[in-house]
Amino acid sequence: MFAKVMKQIAIVAASCALALTNLGGTVNAAENAKTPTWGAWKTTTITYKTDVSSNYYKGVWKNAVKSWNKVGVVELVPAKSGQSADITLTSSNSLKTKGDDLAGYTNYSYYQKKDNNQIVSATSTLNKKLLTKYNYTKKQRTNVATHEIGHALGLSHSKSEASVMFASERYASIDQQDKAALESVYNN
Length: 188
Hints:
Blueprint: E1 4-5, E2 11-12, H1 16-19, E3 39-40, E4 45-51, H2 55-71, E5 75-78, E6 87-92, E7 96-97, E8 100-101, E9 104-111, E10 117-127, H3 128-133, H4 138-153, H5 176-186
Parallel strand pairs: 3-10, 4-5, 4-6, 6-10
Antiparallel strand pairs: 1-9, 2-9, 7-8, 9-10
């Protein structure tokens, strides 16, 4: 049987310093890079709950969920009242790891398996204070939220600035390589 691994792994979405670096310009060789994966849920129907009081951030998370549902590989559905959710979507006034201030952060637990880790829970958080301080638009906040849900779905950081999974991306949305990465782990 598989050993249950309940590691809380931090995925850094974007640090304050990195969040401002992608202001456009040149295309590098990493543009055609594939989005790597680290795991997947047991099923393609994954429940979530939005644990924020702000209607603004509820809207940001709702838009991010819609983006992943449009891809057509997984279906994110709201958890029913009283049901525990697979993914919790939340916000905070501070997110720090190793001294860096982060725009977003995802913790997850999984079963370690030989071929692909099985995700069992995830919490994705947005840093409201940092996103406001650096004047992120609602669309840019949605891109950060989409990035964090990508981690909760089993995607790692991409080397391509065109990918929503690029480590310091607030401008890109889901692209073909992100869809291909989801398909590779969920359509096996």
